[in-house]
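Consider the following assembly input.
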Amino acid sequence: AAGVIQSPRHLIKEKRETATLKCYPIPRHDTVYWYQQGPGQDPQFLISFYEKMQSDKGSIPDRFSAQQFSDYHSELNMSSLELGDSALYFCASTLRRRDTQYFGPGTRLTVL
Amino acid sequence: AQTVTQSQPEMSVQEAETVTLSCTYDTSENNYYLFWYKQPPSRQMILVIRQEAYKQQNATENRFSVNFQKAAKSFSLKISDSQLGDTAMYFCAFEGGADGLTFGKGTHLIIQP
């Protein structure tokens, strides 16, 4: 069965640079969620989109923005990167809101 | 805001034994969902089991079952006939009024051969 696809899988950036993470949900899934998992931490909810509109917002820094496109893929844009942004970033998708979330493999971001 | 507490940072059992992971939560919501996710060394987040709060019957998935006590706000995971491949971090998660999942801090489960 098709799963959530995230790209790139690994990303290395310098401080103050920008990064864009991409997420392709499971086919027919219309809701996308972004999570950040720091080293040794539990995942923290950042933001979600339903039918291309922002649905809910968690602990997403103002330096980050995200959107969902007409084909339901989503992109997380991160600017002015800080060392503390180094983490594993997960995307998850559901067939509809409040359904079981299926996670992608994550993008490991390292900020030097 | 809801909170999820996993009081066992690490557990270790022998292969083939049964192990129970604890989870408690706090919420004012009446309709919500509870999950257990497994995160092996690959860091992939894998759904283990899901429980709807309105269902009294405990969810089961093969060797995995839950003990859901709504009044006590408790949601424990039992793994029967544990296998080496069960070694992973296990996260309890809550989904209520907001979209995002709220996770506990996790329990690192080690299955010894």
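The first strand of chain B starts at residue 3 and ends at 5. Ask yourself how this observation constrains the way the partners meet.
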